[in-house]
Amino acid sequence: MINKVVSNAQEAVHDIQDNAVVMFGGFGLCGIPENCIQALLRSGVSGLTCISNNAGVDDFGIGLLLKTRQVKKIISSYVGENAEFERQLLSGELEVDLIPQGTLAERIRAGGAGIPAFFTPAGVGTEVAEGKEVREFHGKLYLLEQWLRADFALVKAWKGDSSGNLIYRGTARNFNPMMAAAGKITIAEVEELVPLGELDPNHIHTPGIYVQRIFQGQQYEKRIEQRTIRK
Amino acid sequence: MLDKIGIAKRIAQEVKDGMYINLGIGIPTLVANYIPTKLNVVLQSENGLLGIGPFPTEVEVDPDLINAGKQTITMMPGSSLFSSSESFGMIRGGHVDLTILGAMEVSEQGDIANWKVPGKMVKGMGGAMDLVASAKHIIVAMQHCSKEGASKLLTQCTLPITGIKCVKKIVTDLAVLDVLPSGGFKLLERAPGVSVEEIRKATAGKLMIEGEIPEMVLD
Protein backbone atom coordinates (compact mmCIF):
# COMPACT_ATOMS: atom_id res chain seq x y z
CA MET A 1 0.00 0.00 0.00
CA ILE A 2 1.11 3.55 -0.69
CA ASN A 3 2.12 5.52 2.38
CA LYS A 4 0.51 9.00 2.37
CA VAL A 5 1.29 10.03 5.90
CA VAL A 6 2.75 13.49 6.46
CA SER A 7 3.92 14.62 9.87
CA ASN A 8 1.58 17.54 10.51
CA ALA A 9 -0.82 20.14 9.15
CA GLN A 10 1.95 22.58 8.26
CA GLU A 11 3.66 20.03 6.03
CA ALA A 12 0.32 18.98 4.55
CA VAL A 13 -0.63 22.49 3.36
CA HIS A 14 2.89 23.74 2.50
CA ASP A 15 2.20 24.06 -1.25
CA ILE A 16 -1.21 25.76 -1.06
CA GLN A 17 -0.35 28.97 -2.92
CA ASP A 18 -2.01 32.38 -3.10
CA ASN A 19 -5.25 32.36 -5.13
CA ALA A 20 -5.76 28.61 -4.80
CA VAL A 21 -9.25 27.11 -4.96
CA VAL A 22 -9.74 25.11 -1.77
CA MET A 23 -12.62 22.94 -0.57
CA PHE A 24 -13.28 22.72 3.17
CA GLY A 25 -15.36 19.85 4.53
CA GLY A 26 -17.95 20.41 7.26
CA PHE A 27 -21.49 21.51 7.99
CA GLY A 28 -21.55 24.47 10.36
CA LEU A 29 -18.59 23.76 12.62
CA CYS A 30 -19.22 19.99 12.54
CA GLY A 31 -16.56 17.98 10.70
CA ILE A 32 -14.34 20.91 9.70
CA PRO A 33 -10.58 20.52 9.11
CA GLU A 34 -9.54 22.48 12.21
CA ASN A 35 -5.83 21.70 11.98
CA CYS A 36 -5.53 22.62 8.29
CA ILE A 37 -7.32 25.92 8.91
CA GLN A 38 -4.83 26.73 11.68
CA ALA A 39 -1.95 25.84 9.35
CA LEU A 40 -3.32 28.14 6.62
CA LEU A 41 -3.55 30.95 9.18
CA ARG A 42 0.12 30.42 9.97
CA SER A 43 1.19 30.11 6.32
CA GLY A 44 -0.45 33.46 5.54
CA VAL A 45 -1.58 32.34 2.06
CA SER A 46 -4.06 34.80 0.59
CA GLY A 47 -6.59 35.29 -2.19
CA LEU A 48 -8.19 31.92 -1.46
CA THR A 49 -11.41 30.81 -3.09
CA CYS A 50 -13.12 28.72 -0.40
CA ILE A 51 -15.76 26.16 -1.31
CA SER A 52 -17.57 25.27 1.91
CA ASN A 53 -21.21 24.80 2.86
CA ASN A 54 -20.85 27.49 5.53
CA ALA A 55 -18.40 30.25 6.41
CA GLY A 56 -17.72 29.44 10.05
CA VAL A 57 -18.28 31.86 12.91
CA ASP A 58 -16.27 34.98 13.77
CA ASP A 59 -13.63 33.20 15.80
CA PHE A 60 -13.70 29.63 14.50
CA GLY A 61 -13.59 27.71 11.25
CA ILE A 62 -13.32 29.67 8.01
CA GLY A 63 -14.25 32.77 10.03
CA LEU A 64 -10.62 32.82 11.21
CA LEU A 65 -9.36 33.07 7.62
CA LEU A 66 -11.88 35.82 6.89
CA LYS A 67 -10.63 37.85 9.81
CA THR A 68 -7.07 37.71 8.46
CA ARG A 69 -8.34 38.66 4.95
CA GLN A 70 -6.99 35.47 3.40
CA VAL A 71 -10.23 34.75 1.54
CA LYS A 72 -11.08 36.42 -1.78
CA LYS A 73 -14.21 34.48 -2.62
CA ILE A 74 -16.50 32.04 -0.88
CA ILE A 75 -18.84 29.52 -2.49
CA SER A 76 -21.45 28.35 0.04
CA SER A 77 -25.13 27.59 0.61
CA TYR A 78 -25.57 29.47 3.90
CA VAL A 79 -23.32 32.08 5.45
CA GLY A 80 -25.17 33.45 8.49
CA GLU A 81 -23.72 33.60 12.00
CA ASN A 82 -20.66 35.66 11.03
CA ALA A 83 -20.40 39.42 11.59
CA GLU A 84 -16.97 39.83 9.98
CA PHE A 85 -18.28 38.03 6.91
CA GLU A 86 -21.19 40.46 6.70
CA ARG A 87 -18.90 43.46 7.03
CA GLN A 88 -16.56 42.28 4.23
CA LEU A 89 -19.46 41.37 1.97
CA LEU A 90 -21.15 44.75 2.34
CA SER A 91 -17.87 46.61 1.81
CA GLY A 92 -17.18 44.62 -1.36
CA GLU A 93 -13.94 43.07 -0.06
CA LEU A 94 -15.37 39.57 -0.30
CA GLU A 95 -17.02 37.89 -3.26
CA VAL A 96 -19.80 35.42 -2.47
CA ASP A 97 -21.51 32.81 -4.60
CA LEU A 98 -24.59 31.30 -2.94
CA ILE A 99 -25.70 27.90 -4.20
CA PRO A 100 -28.59 25.67 -3.07
CA GLN A 101 -27.14 23.13 -0.67
CA GLY A 102 -28.13 20.03 -2.64
CA THR A 103 -26.81 21.57 -5.83
CA LEU A 104 -23.55 22.43 -4.08
CA ALA A 105 -23.22 18.86 -2.79
CA GLU A 106 -24.02 17.39 -6.20
CA ARG A 107 -21.70 19.77 -8.10
CA ILE A 108 -18.86 18.63 -5.86
CA ARG A 109 -19.87 14.98 -6.22
CA ALA A 110 -20.00 15.44 -10.01
CA GLY A 111 -16.54 17.02 -9.94
CA GLY A 112 -15.07 13.99 -8.22
CA ALA A 113 -17.00 11.53 -10.37
CA GLY A 114 -16.13 13.03 -13.76
CA ILE A 115 -19.60 14.34 -14.63
CA PRO A 116 -19.11 17.85 -16.06
CA ALA A 117 -22.77 18.89 -15.78
CA PHE A 118 -26.18 17.63 -14.71
CA PHE A 119 -29.80 18.74 -14.51
CA THR A 120 -31.49 19.50 -11.17
CA PRO A 121 -34.89 21.01 -10.29
CA ALA A 122 -33.53 23.18 -7.44
CA GLY A 123 -33.71 26.87 -8.30
CA VAL A 124 -36.03 26.69 -11.32
CA GLY A 125 -37.95 29.97 -11.54
CA THR A 126 -35.60 31.71 -9.07
CA GLU A 127 -32.59 33.99 -9.46
CA VAL A 128 -30.38 30.90 -9.24
CA ALA A 129 -31.63 30.00 -12.74
CA GLU A 130 -30.43 33.25 -14.34
CA GLY A 131 -28.15 32.53 -17.28
CA LYS A 132 -28.54 28.76 -17.00
CA GLU A 133 -30.02 26.34 -19.50
CA VAL A 134 -33.49 25.12 -18.49
CA ARG A 135 -34.78 21.89 -20.00
CA GLU A 136 -37.99 19.92 -19.55
CA PHE A 137 -37.89 16.22 -18.71
CA HIS A 138 -41.11 14.27 -18.16
CA GLY A 139 -43.11 17.48 -17.80
CA LYS A 140 -40.89 19.12 -15.16
CA LEU A 141 -38.26 21.85 -15.58
CA TYR A 142 -34.62 21.38 -14.61
CA LEU A 143 -31.50 23.59 -14.55
CA LEU A 144 -28.16 22.68 -16.03
CA GLU A 145 -25.50 22.91 -13.32
CA GLN A 146 -21.76 22.32 -13.71
CA TRP A 147 -19.30 20.35 -11.64
CA LEU A 148 -17.03 21.92 -9.03
CA ARG A 149 -13.42 20.87 -8.58
CA ALA A 150 -10.63 22.34 -6.52
CA ASP A 151 -6.86 22.60 -6.36
CA PHE A 152 -7.00 21.27 -2.81
CA ALA A 153 -9.66 19.57 -0.71
CA LEU A 154 -9.24 19.71 3.08
CA VAL A 155 -11.29 17.04 4.78
CA LYS A 156 -11.71 15.85 8.34
CA ALA A 157 -12.41 12.24 9.29
CA TRP A 158 -12.67 10.30 12.52
CA LYS A 159 -10.26 7.50 11.65
CA GLY A 160 -7.91 6.96 8.77
CA ASP A 161 -5.02 4.70 7.82
CA SER A 162 -1.69 5.37 6.15
CA SER A 163 -3.07 4.63 2.68
CA GLY A 164 -5.77 7.31 3.11
CA ASN A 165 -8.84 5.19 3.79
CA LEU A 166 -11.27 7.22 5.88
CA ILE A 167 -14.16 6.65 8.27
CA TYR A 168 -16.31 9.56 9.45
CA ARG A 169 -18.38 9.78 12.61
CA GLY A 170 -21.98 10.97 13.06
CA THR A 171 -23.10 13.96 11.05
CA ALA A 172 -19.46 15.09 10.75
CA ARG A 173 -19.43 13.21 7.42
CA ASN A 174 -21.52 15.80 5.50
CA PHE A 175 -19.52 17.31 2.60
CA ASN A 176 -16.24 15.54 3.38
CA PRO A 177 -16.59 12.43 1.17
CA MET A 178 -17.51 14.34 -2.02
CA MET A 179 -14.82 16.92 -1.43
CA ALA A 180 -12.23 14.20 -0.90
CA ALA A 181 -12.94 13.03 -4.45
CA ALA A 182 -13.12 16.52 -6.00
CA GLY A 183 -9.72 17.87 -4.93
CA LYS A 184 -6.66 17.57 -7.20
CA ILE A 185 -4.77 17.18 -3.94
CA THR A 186 -6.84 15.97 -1.02
CA ILE A 187 -5.50 16.40 2.48
CA ALA A 188 -7.22 14.37 5.18
CA GLU A 189 -6.81 15.16 8.85
CA VAL A 190 -8.03 12.48 11.23
CA GLU A 191 -8.58 12.18 14.95
CA GLU A 192 -6.93 8.78 14.94
CA LEU A 193 -4.40 7.53 12.41
CA VAL A 194 -4.27 3.74 12.60
CA PRO A 195 -1.93 1.14 11.08
CA LEU A 196 -2.84 -0.55 7.79
CA GLY A 197 -5.27 -3.39 8.25
CA GLU A 198 -6.89 -1.99 11.36
CA LEU A 199 -9.87 -0.45 9.57
CA ASP A 200 -12.46 -2.96 8.39
CA PRO A 201 -12.66 -2.59 4.56
CA ASN A 202 -16.43 -3.12 4.87
CA HIS A 203 -16.71 0.12 6.82
CA ILE A 204 -14.57 2.51 4.76
CA HIS A 205 -16.49 5.63 3.70
CA THR A 206 -13.77 7.26 1.56
CA PRO A 207 -11.43 4.86 -0.23
CA GLY A 208 -7.78 5.93 -0.05
CA ILE A 209 -7.49 6.50 -3.80
CA TYR A 210 -8.99 9.97 -3.28
CA VAL A 211 -6.55 11.02 -0.56
CA GLN A 212 -3.02 12.24 -1.32
CA ARG A 213 -1.92 13.25 2.20
CA ILE A 214 -3.06 12.22 5.65
CA PHE A 215 -2.06 13.19 9.17
CA GLN A 216 -3.32 12.85 12.72
CA GLY A 217 -4.70 16.17 13.92
CA GLN A 218 -3.98 17.67 17.32
CA GLN A 219 -6.17 19.20 20.02
CA TYR A 220 -9.55 19.07 18.34
CA GLU A 221 -11.83 21.66 19.84
CA LYS A 222 -14.98 20.50 17.97
CA ARG A 223 -16.81 23.64 18.90
CA ILE A 224 -20.61 23.40 19.19
CA GLU A 225 -22.60 26.20 17.55
CA GLN A 226 -25.99 25.60 19.21
CA ARG A 227 -25.61 23.57 22.37
CA THR A 228 -29.20 22.43 22.94
CA ILE A 229 -30.01 20.35 26.00
CA ARG A 230 -33.12 18.36 26.89
CA LYS A 231 -34.59 19.39 30.22
CA MET B 1 -55.71 32.85 16.75
CA LEU B 2 -52.90 30.33 17.11
CA ASP B 3 -49.49 30.89 18.62
CA LYS B 4 -46.43 29.11 17.26
CA ILE B 5 -47.13 26.03 19.34
CA GLY B 6 -50.72 25.96 18.08
CA ILE B 7 -49.49 26.04 14.48
CA ALA B 8 -47.04 23.22 15.24
CA LYS B 9 -49.80 21.15 16.91
CA ARG B 10 -52.13 21.57 13.95
CA ILE B 11 -49.41 20.59 11.46
CA ALA B 12 -48.60 17.53 13.56
CA GLN B 13 -52.13 16.29 12.74
CA GLU B 14 -51.07 16.01 9.07
CA VAL B 15 -48.38 13.45 9.92
CA LYS B 16 -49.23 9.87 8.98
CA ASP B 17 -47.78 6.59 10.17
CA GLY B 18 -44.72 5.47 8.21
CA MET B 19 -43.71 8.88 6.89
CA TYR B 20 -40.17 10.12 6.33
CA ILE B 21 -40.25 13.84 7.18
CA ASN B 22 -37.91 16.81 6.80
CA LEU B 23 -38.55 19.63 9.26
CA GLY B 24 -37.25 23.14 8.60
CA ILE B 25 -35.94 25.56 11.20
CA GLY B 26 -38.33 27.46 13.51
CA ILE B 27 -41.98 26.41 13.93
CA PRO B 28 -41.43 23.26 11.79
CA THR B 29 -38.87 21.99 14.32
CA LEU B 30 -41.53 22.30 17.05
CA VAL B 31 -43.84 19.95 15.12
CA ALA B 32 -41.70 17.01 16.26
CA ASN B 33 -42.87 17.59 19.84
CA TYR B 34 -46.54 17.03 18.93
CA ILE B 35 -46.41 14.00 16.62
CA PRO B 36 -48.47 11.29 18.39
CA THR B 37 -46.10 8.73 19.87
CA LYS B 38 -48.17 5.85 18.46
CA LEU B 39 -47.08 6.88 14.96
CA ASN B 40 -43.84 5.49 13.57
CA VAL B 41 -42.15 8.27 11.62
CA VAL B 42 -38.53 9.03 10.74
CA LEU B 43 -37.17 12.57 10.78
CA GLN B 44 -34.54 13.46 8.19
CA SER B 45 -31.79 15.97 8.83
CA GLU B 46 -30.33 17.27 5.57
CA ASN B 47 -26.80 17.28 6.95
CA GLY B 48 -26.88 13.49 6.82
CA LEU B 49 -29.13 11.66 9.27
CA LEU B 50 -32.35 9.68 9.17
CA GLY B 51 -33.71 9.22 12.68
CA ILE B 52 -33.34 12.47 14.62
CA GLY B 53 -33.94 11.85 18.31
CA PRO B 54 -34.61 14.26 21.19
CA PHE B 55 -32.12 16.90 22.24
CA PRO B 56 -29.35 15.33 24.36
CA THR B 57 -28.92 15.47 28.10
CA GLU B 58 -25.75 17.20 29.34
CA VAL B 59 -23.81 13.91 29.30
CA GLU B 60 -25.13 12.82 25.89
CA VAL B 61 -23.94 15.97 24.06
CA ASP B 62 -21.81 14.96 21.06
CA PRO B 63 -20.28 17.65 18.81
CA ASP B 64 -20.39 15.16 15.91
CA LEU B 65 -24.19 14.96 16.09
CA ILE B 66 -26.10 18.07 15.03
CA ASN B 67 -29.24 18.88 13.07
CA ALA B 68 -29.58 21.26 10.11
CA GLY B 69 -30.05 24.13 12.58
CA LYS B 70 -26.63 23.21 14.07
CA GLN B 71 -28.28 22.18 17.35
CA THR B 72 -26.95 19.18 19.25
CA ILE B 73 -29.22 16.13 18.88
CA THR B 74 -29.39 12.41 19.56
CA MET B 75 -30.19 9.51 17.22
CA MET B 76 -33.16 7.17 17.47
CA PRO B 77 -32.51 3.42 17.48
CA GLY B 78 -32.34 2.32 13.83
CA SER B 79 -30.88 5.58 12.54
CA SER B 80 -28.62 5.86 9.51
CA LEU B 81 -25.91 8.37 8.62
CA PHE B 82 -24.81 9.52 5.16
CA SER B 83 -23.15 12.30 3.20
CA SER B 84 -24.75 15.57 2.08
CA SER B 85 -24.95 14.42 -1.54
CA GLU B 86 -26.75 11.23 -0.51
CA SER B 87 -29.03 13.32 1.71
CA PHE B 88 -30.07 15.59 -1.13
CA GLY B 89 -30.23 12.59 -3.43
CA MET B 90 -33.00 11.18 -1.25
CA ILE B 91 -34.69 14.59 -1.13
CA ARG B 92 -34.44 15.20 -4.89
CA GLY B 93 -35.34 11.61 -5.66
CA GLY B 94 -38.71 12.04 -3.94
CA HIS B 95 -38.04 9.58 -1.12
CA VAL B 96 -38.94 12.03 1.64
CA ASP B 97 -42.73 11.99 2.10
CA LEU B 98 -43.32 15.32 3.78
CA THR B 99 -41.45 18.61 4.04
CA ILE B 100 -42.54 21.22 6.58
CA LEU B 101 -40.99 24.66 6.33
CA GLY B 102 -41.51 28.30 7.11
CA ALA B 103 -42.25 31.06 4.60
CA MET B 104 -42.27 34.83 4.33
CA GLU B 105 -44.75 34.76 1.43
CA VAL B 106 -46.77 32.20 -0.52
CA SER B 107 -48.59 32.93 -3.77
CA GLU B 108 -51.95 31.52 -4.87
CA GLN B 109 -49.99 29.46 -7.45
CA GLY B 110 -48.04 27.78 -4.64
CA ASP B 111 -44.84 29.77 -5.16
CA ILE B 112 -42.86 30.28 -1.97
CA ALA B 113 -40.45 33.03 -0.87
CA ASN B 114 -38.43 32.36 2.26
CA TRP B 115 -34.74 33.03 1.71
CA LYS B 116 -33.99 36.63 0.90
CA VAL B 117 -35.24 40.10 1.77
CA PRO B 118 -33.88 42.88 -0.49
CA GLY B 119 -31.84 45.38 1.52
CA LYS B 120 -31.12 42.89 4.30
CA MET B 121 -28.02 40.74 4.68
CA VAL B 122 -28.42 37.66 2.49
CA LYS B 123 -27.51 34.55 4.41
CA GLY B 124 -28.19 32.03 1.69
CA MET B 125 -30.86 29.55 0.75
CA GLY B 126 -29.27 26.54 2.46
CA GLY B 127 -31.27 23.47 1.44
CA ALA B 128 -34.60 25.26 0.97
CA MET B 129 -34.53 25.45 -2.84
CA ASP B 130 -33.67 21.75 -3.17
CA LEU B 131 -36.40 20.78 -0.72
CA VAL B 132 -39.19 22.80 -2.32
CA ALA B 133 -38.22 21.76 -5.85
CA SER B 134 -38.53 18.07 -5.10
CA ALA B 135 -40.69 17.33 -2.08
CA LYS B 136 -43.81 15.23 -2.71
CA HIS B 137 -45.81 17.13 -0.14
CA ILE B 138 -44.98 20.54 1.30
CA ILE B 139 -46.74 22.12 4.26
CA VAL B 140 -45.87 25.70 5.10
CA ALA B 141 -45.99 27.05 8.65
CA MET B 142 -46.32 30.83 8.69
CA GLN B 143 -47.99 33.92 10.06
CA HIS B 144 -50.95 34.97 7.92
CA CYS B 145 -49.90 38.65 8.01
CA SER B 146 -46.77 40.65 8.71
CA LYS B 147 -46.37 42.60 11.95
CA GLU B 148 -47.61 45.63 10.01
CA GLY B 149 -50.75 43.71 9.06
CA ALA B 150 -49.91 43.08 5.39
CA SER B 151 -51.08 39.74 4.01
CA LYS B 152 -48.40 37.14 3.27
CA LEU B 153 -50.80 35.02 1.19
CA LEU B 154 -50.58 36.83 -2.11
CA THR B 155 -51.53 36.74 -5.78
CA GLN B 156 -47.82 36.95 -6.61
CA CYS B 157 -44.82 36.85 -4.27
CA THR B 158 -43.05 40.19 -3.98
CA LEU B 159 -39.86 38.78 -2.42
CA PRO B 160 -37.29 36.70 -4.34
CA ILE B 161 -38.74 33.24 -4.97
CA THR B 162 -37.39 30.03 -3.41
CA GLY B 163 -39.46 27.70 -5.59
CA ILE B 164 -42.43 27.75 -7.93
CA LYS B 165 -45.76 25.90 -7.74
CA CYS B 166 -44.71 23.71 -4.86
CA VAL B 167 -46.71 24.54 -1.71
CA LYS B 168 -49.69 22.23 -1.17
CA LYS B 169 -50.92 23.21 2.28
CA ILE B 170 -50.54 26.20 4.60
CA VAL B 171 -51.13 26.41 8.33
CA THR B 172 -51.15 29.96 9.67
CA ASP B 173 -52.13 31.59 12.96
CA LEU B 174 -55.58 32.13 11.42
CA ALA B 175 -56.38 29.19 9.16
CA VAL B 176 -55.60 25.94 7.35
CA LEU B 177 -55.66 26.31 3.58
CA ASP B 178 -54.93 24.15 0.55
CA VAL B 179 -53.23 25.63 -2.49
CA LEU B 180 -55.23 24.33 -5.43
CA PRO B 181 -53.37 23.01 -8.49
CA SER B 182 -55.44 25.41 -10.60
CA GLY B 183 -54.45 28.32 -8.32
CA GLY B 184 -56.07 29.87 -5.26
CA PHE B 185 -56.19 29.30 -1.52
CA LYS B 186 -59.00 26.98 -0.46
CA LEU B 187 -60.05 27.66 3.13
CA LEU B 188 -60.34 24.41 5.07
CA GLU B 189 -60.38 25.38 8.76
CA ARG B 190 -60.48 28.46 10.98
CA ALA B 191 -58.26 28.91 14.02
CA PRO B 192 -60.23 28.96 17.30
CA GLY B 193 -62.13 32.25 17.63
CA VAL B 194 -61.26 33.49 14.13
CA SER B 195 -64.09 34.31 11.70
CA VAL B 196 -64.19 33.65 7.97
CA GLU B 197 -64.42 37.39 7.49
CA GLU B 198 -61.16 37.98 9.36
CA ILE B 199 -59.44 35.38 7.18
CA ARG B 200 -60.91 36.96 4.06
CA LYS B 201 -59.52 40.37 5.09
CA ALA B 202 -56.09 38.88 5.86
CA THR B 203 -55.75 37.06 2.52
CA ALA B 204 -54.65 39.15 -0.47
CA GLY B 205 -54.59 36.26 -2.95
CA LYS B 206 -57.63 34.45 -4.34
CA LEU B 207 -59.50 32.82 -1.44
CA MET B 208 -62.07 30.10 -2.04
CA ILE B 209 -64.71 29.46 0.60
CA GLU B 210 -67.21 26.63 0.14
CA GLY B 211 -69.94 25.97 2.67
CA GLU B 212 -69.45 26.06 6.43
CA ILE B 213 -65.77 26.33 7.47
CA PRO B 214 -65.14 24.31 10.63
CA GLU B 215 -62.99 25.47 13.50
CA MET B 216 -59.72 23.58 14.07
CA VAL B 217 -59.77 20.92 16.74
CA LEU B 218 -56.62 21.00 18.85
CA ASP B 219 -55.85 18.93 21.94
Give a short synopsis of this structure.
Chain A has 231 residues and is an alpha/beta fold. Chain A has helices spanning 9-12, 34-43, 62-67, 83-90, 101-113, 176-182, and strands at residues 21-24, 48-51, 71-76, 95-98, 117-120, 134-137, 140-146, 150-161, 166-167, 183-194, 213-216.
Task: Characterize the structure shown.
The complex is a heterodimer of chains A (231) and B (219). In chain A, the strands form 2 sheets. In chain A, strands 1, 2, 3, 4, 8, 9, 10 and 11 form an 8-stranded mixed sheet that branches. Chain A has a 3-stranded antiparallel sheet with strand order 5-7-6. Chain A contains 6 helices and 11 strands. In chain A, a hairpin with a 4-residue loop joins strand 8 (150-161) and strand 9. Chain A has one domain: Glutaconate Coenzyme A-transferase. Chain A is α/β, with parallel strands linked by helices. The mean pLDDT of chain A is 96. Chain B has 219 residues and is an alpha/beta fold. Chain B is built from 5 helices and 13 strands. In chain B, a hairpin with a 3-residue loop joins strand 2 and strand 3. Chains A and B meet through helix 4, helix 5 and helix 6 of A and helix 3 and helix 4 of B.
Note the beta-strand portion of chain A: 25-35%
Per the CATH scheme, the topology name of chain A is Glutaconate Coenzyme A-transferase
List the domain count of chain A as a whole number. Answer: 1
Give the overall shape of chain B: globular
The biggest sheet of chain B, with number of strands, parallel, antiparallel or mixed sense and barrel status, is: 10 strands, mixed
Write the layout of secondary structure elements.
The complex is a heterodimer of chains A (231) and B (219).
Chain A (H helix, E strand, L loop, with lengths): L8 H4 L8 E4 L9 H10 L4 E4 L10 H6 L3 E6 L6 H8 L4 E4 L2 H13 L3 E4 L13 E4 L2 E7 L3 E12 L4 E2 L8 H7 E12 L18 E4 L15
Parallel strand pairs in A: 1-2, 1-8, 2-3, 3-4, 8-10, 10-11
Antiparallel strand pairs in A: 5-7, 6-7, 8-9
Helix pairs in contact in A: 5-6
Chain B lengths: L3 H9 L7 E4 L3 H5 L10 E4 L3 E4 L22 E7 L2 H9 L5 E5 L2 E3 L4 E2 L14 H7 L3 E4 L11 E2 L14 E3 L3 E5 L5 E6 L5 H7 L4 E2 L11
Parallel strand pairs in B: 1-2, 1-5, 5-8, 6-9, 8-10, 12-13
Antiparallel strand pairs in B: 2-3, 3-4, 6-7, 10-11, 11-12
